[in-house]
C-alpha cells in the first residue's frame, strides 16, 4: 500500500476559515477542500504547505500549529496521509491559480459546502475546537 503525504492549510482570518472549491481540471472537481498539496523530496511538511499555498492562491501564510493527520483512500492501493496545519495570512492578494472559488466559512457554515471526503475529519476537528482555534490563530498586529 502506497502512502502519499499531503499537507493542507486551515487558514483563519477574522474568525472564519478558508475553503477552496476544486476546479474542473482537478481530481474531485466541485468538491471543497483545505488547500495544500503533495510533499516533494527533501521538503518538510511546513515548507511544502508554504510553497503550495503560494503556488495555488498566490498568498503567503504563517503556520501556527499542526492538527490531527488523516489517512484516506480514494483508490485501492493508495492512501493519502493528509497533514493539516492552522495558519494565518501574511499577504491578502488572492489569485486562484488552481481552484474555481474560495469562501470564508464561520463556525455555523462549516458544513454548508460539499467537502472532499478526506477533509471531513479535519472539518469535524475544527468544529470541536472552534473557539480555541480562532483565538490561537488571530494575527498579532
UniProtKB/TrEMBL annotation:
Domain of life: Bacteria
Enzymatic reactions: 8-oxo-dGTP + H2O = 8-oxo-dGMP + diphosphate + H(+); 8-oxo-GTP + H2O = 8-oxo-GMP + diphosphate + H(+)
Keyword Cell cycle on entry: no
Protein name as it appears in the record: 8-oxo-dGTP diphosphatase
Database matches in Gene3D superfamilies: Nucleoside Triphosphate Pyrophosphohydrolase
Keywords: DNA damage, DNA repair, DNA replication, Hydrolase, Magnesium, Metal-binding, Mutator protein
Named cofactor requirement(s): Mg(2+)
EC number: 3.6.1.55
